[in-house]
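To the wet lab folks,

You asked to see what we're planning to order before we commit. Fair enough. Below is the target structure as tokens, and below that is the sequence we designed to fit it. If anything looks off to you, flag it before the synthesis order goes out.
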């Protein structure tokens, strides 16, 4: 597995955008100092041009309360079938922006909010990444499988995987 560190901010944001788009759902963790940490699956609505990850949530949630006590969060993304993994550590803030909520609103989201788009509990969670680390493959899934299988049978080195830090 090769290691790369993407220090160019724009390149790092683009890599973050691609990985999150390909994976979408993450395990969103708050109250990181507790045992066990509070975690739940969340769908990422967008990674913006600054690298911020956006989520829709409820003011009634434990996650919302935890972020007000301590904004540090960790996001874990995984697509094992595609050999793609990403962890993002950062600070979250809760805010309300009607236009952004409308932008993200869809039938799936509608199922979570009984009162529709005007539900007073709808809130946005914006995660500003401080550190990110990923594991990925250099080529598509089928080529990665073939190279891994070839390595298993021949003992040849497989440098298909890569990991790295993103300086977002």
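Sequence we intend to order:
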């Amino acid at each position: 597995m090769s290691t790369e560190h993407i220090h160019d901010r724009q390149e790092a944001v683009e890599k973050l955008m691609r990985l999150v788009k390909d994976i979408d759902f993450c395990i969103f963790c708050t109250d990181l100092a507790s045992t066990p940490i509070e975690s739940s699956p969340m769908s990422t609505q967008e990674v913006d041009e600054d690298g911020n990850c956006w989520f829709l949530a409820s003011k009634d949630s434990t996650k919302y309360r935890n972020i007000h006590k301590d904004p540090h969060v960790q996001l874990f993304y995984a697509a094992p079938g595609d050999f793609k993994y990403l962890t993002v550590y950062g600070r979250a803030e809760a805010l309300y922006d009607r236009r952004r909520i409308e932008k993200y609103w869809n039938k799936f989201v509608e199922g979570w909010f009984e009162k529709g788009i005007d539900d007073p509990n709808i809130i946005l969670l914006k995660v500003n990444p401080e550190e990110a680390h990923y594991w990925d493959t250099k080529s598509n899934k089928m080529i990665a499988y073939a190279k891994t299988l070839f390595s298993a049978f021949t003992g040849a080195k497989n440098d298909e995987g890569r990991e790295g830090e993103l300086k977002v």
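Structural context that might help your review: The two ends are 22 Å apart (CA to CA). The domain at 2-166 is CATH 2.30.110.10 (Pnp Oxidase; Chain A).

Thanks,
Computational group
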